[in-house]
Amino acid sequence: MPEIIGVDLGGTKILARLVDPVTGKSEGRVKKPTPKSGPSDVLDKIVTVVDDLDPDRRAESVGIGVPGLVTESGVVTLCPNINGWDTPVDVAGILSERLGRTVAVGNDVNVGALAEHRVGAGQGFKDMATVFVGTGVGGGLVLNNRLVAGERGMAGEIGHLTTHPGGRQCGCGQFGHMEAYAGRAGLEAEARRRHAAGDKNELVRLAGDGRIKSSFIAKAIEAEDKVTLELIEEAVQALASAIGSMATLLDLPLVVLGGGVVDRLGQDFLDRISASEYFGGFGNHVCELRLAKRLDDAGVVGAAILAADS
Ligand SMILES: [Zn+2]
Questions:
Q1: What domains does the chain contain, in order, with CATH numbers?
Q2: CA 283 / ligand 1 centre spacing (Å)
Q3: CA distance between the termini of the chain
Q4: How far apart are CA 15 and CA 258, in angstroms?
């Protein structure tokens, strides 16, 4: 199997490795800070990183995971985590010319889903989805062994399904989305709101003025803090409702869950989601929930798999 270059473009760093897309094994490693001066400097830096990693041109294709919305042809339409990226950029077109290699570009959460599908917890499944619960909630969709990105790159964005009509405001500005209940940032905002309104809680006590980290959530659950238990129950309902509906709509046999909050709360959290009455599907449909494998460098491996599939 020829090697493929996987690139993980993040808000703070660009990491590239040579990857065997069948086994997921990687070698070589070049890492540079992400320029803060806009997309054209970011693309220059990716060219440098790729040349440094593979000066002898062993790899003929490059896959890149990007923290933004990416169309199926590799145009990055929105990239809020990278300074100055406020207009669409044809990353695949520009870089394939400059690198003289085939270039595939995908959303970072989507390529993470591909990594789980091919070399992680989803191995052997034709259809599956991933749900990553961290600060927000992202997701990726693999149908018939292919990543589904959607025309505008929004397929799999499960965090923005409405689970509580008219409910809390989401980071995206709309109301009642699952992410506002299950994402760490949504949970934090609600815990602070209740604390300030007199409903004192362990989450705010533990975090003080700092971020309410996933480890604090786990501690507050252990201490059986009333507000925390209520917020977690709402998070479970939101996740169960969104995942159950998605699994029914697409007839998914498997959903893989990961991200900071899931990593910390573990299998118990998954068991609560699948036991929730909100998880119910149509007829006797059963969808298994599994913990993500937490692969090393999932971003670069998934990006390389995307390039291998293209
Ligand atoms: Zn939203």
A1: 4-115+296-309 (3.30.420.40), 123-291 (3.30.420.40)
A2: 29
A3: 15
A4: 21
- Can you tell me the mean pLDDT for 180-186? 96
Q: Which of 109, 137, 128, 120 is nearest to 289 (CA)?
A: 128
Q: How far is CA 231 from CA 39, 221, 253, 301, in A?
A: 39, 10, 28, 35
Q: Given this model, what pLDDT does residue 206 score?
A: 96
The pLDDT of 119-136, averaged and rounded, is 96
> Which tokens sit at 159?
């965090």
285 CA from centroid of ligand 1 (Å): 27
Query: pTM value?
Result: 0.92
Q: Give the β-pairing of 69-70 and 61-66.
A: unpaired
Residue entry with tokens 């709509």: 249
Q: Under a CB-based contact definition with an 8 Å cutoff, are residues 139 and 155 in contact? A: no
At 117, which helix (H) or strand (E)?
helix 108-119
> How far apart (Å, rounded) are the C-alpha atoms in residues 199 and 310?
52
Task: Please state, rounded to an integer, the average pLDDT across all residues of the chain.
Answer: 94
Q: How far is the CA of 275 from the centre of ligand 1 (A)?
A: 25
What's the pLDDT tens digit per position in 219-271? 999 999 999 999 999 999 999 999 999 999 999 999 999 999 999 999 999 99
